[in-house]
Structures are given as C-alpha cells and as structure tokens.
Amino acid sequence: MSKITGKVWNFGANIDTDVIIAARYLNSSDPDHLAKYVMEDADPDFSNKLKKGDIIVAGENFGCGSSREHAPIALKAAGIAAVVAPSFARIFYRNAFNMGLPIFELPESMEIKEGEEISIDLDSGTIVNNSTKKSYKFIAIPPFMQELIASGGLINYAKEEMKVK
Questions:
Q1: Which residues lie in coiled coils (predicted)?
Q2: Backbone angles phi, psi at 68, to 5 degrees
Q3: Which helix (H) or strand (E) holds 158?
Q4: Residue pLDDT, tens place only, 105-139
Q5: Distance between CA 62 and CA 165 in Å, rounded?
C-alpha cells in the first residue's frame, strides 16, 4: 500500500471519539456493527453515503476525547482508507496505527474540499489534490508506524513477528 486515492469527506476541528462512534453503540466491539454508525452524530446518513476507499479530511485535534479503540476500528471497518488532519489527539494517533488505520498530519488539510479526490503517496510523502492539482508534503510517519500500517495493525504485526522467531 504505497498509494491511497479516494474521495474526500470534510469534518471540522476537535472531532472527538464520541462523534466518530457514539458511546450508545459501544455495547459491541464488532467492526461491522460499529461501521453502520460511524460519524452518525456529525452526519446521520454518513455511513450510507460513504464508499470504500473514501478519505476523511478534518481540522486539528481529530480524535480527541476518550481513548476508545472503537473509533479507529469503526472508521476502518466503514471503509475509510485514511484520515488527514493538521493534528490528532495522541491516544487516537496511537490507536489508529495499532488498528491499521492510516492517518496523515497535514497543516493545510482544510484547503482540501469535500468531494475532491486526493492521492496520498506514502513513498514520496506527498498528498496530491487530483481535483485542483495542488501538491502537499505531509509530516513523515515514523518507520515503525509504517510497519504497523503495512501489517494491518499491531496484532497482525505481532503475529508476523512471532512467525519469524
């Protein structure tokens, strides 16, 4: 997975984990169940409009609030290919990588508008807005975090490591 291309959905700053997946749905940790309700409190019809491979572009501090792992699980299960924002809450940042959800820090993220298509090139460290042809450099992802994404998350990474030994 060296390139991710998808349609953009915009959300503002300070999107907390309760907006990503509301607490009322946390009676299950089944990814398919959670996917049905992703971002429901921000847009009640979001999960029906969303297509596999779409990308969320948001404002600063995405994933703030409680430290539930359900938030990146719900996004990934719903088909979100990546999240782009100027900054992420630290616990969400780590949970996203642990669950295998690619996230990218881009200070200019809000220049990218809903409905536009972007391509994220992990090898070159760039995001290209295919609609406007503008190119951006995202903040580099540490090599170990790249390995987690390539493995599909921490559990898969650990399983692969166990096979090597």
A1: none
A2: -65, 135
A3: helix 154-164
A4: 999 999 999 999 999 998 889 999 999 999 999 99
A5: 37
Q: What is the pTM of this model?
A: 0.94
d(CA 157, CA 98): 9
- What are the tens digits of pLDDT across the range 38-80? 999 999 999 999 999 999 999 999 999 988 899 999 999 999 9
- Sorted by where each starts, the structural domains of the chain and their CATH numbers stand as 3-140 (3.20.19.10)
Backbone angles phi, psi at 17, to 5 degrees: -65, -25
Which two three-digit tokens encode residue 144? Answer: 């170990």
Pairing assessment for the beta strands 82-85 and 55-58 based on DSSP bridges: parallel
User: Tell me, what DSSP letter sits at residue 139?
Assistant: P
CA distance 18 to 38: 10
Handedness of CA 80, 88, 39, 58 (dihedral sign): negative
Q: For residue 3, with 0-12 CB atoms within 10 Å meaning exposed, 13-18 middle and 19 or more buried, which class applies?
A: exposed
Orientation of helix 143-151 relative to helix 90-99, angle to 10°: 50
- Tell me which residue has tokens 């995405």: 62
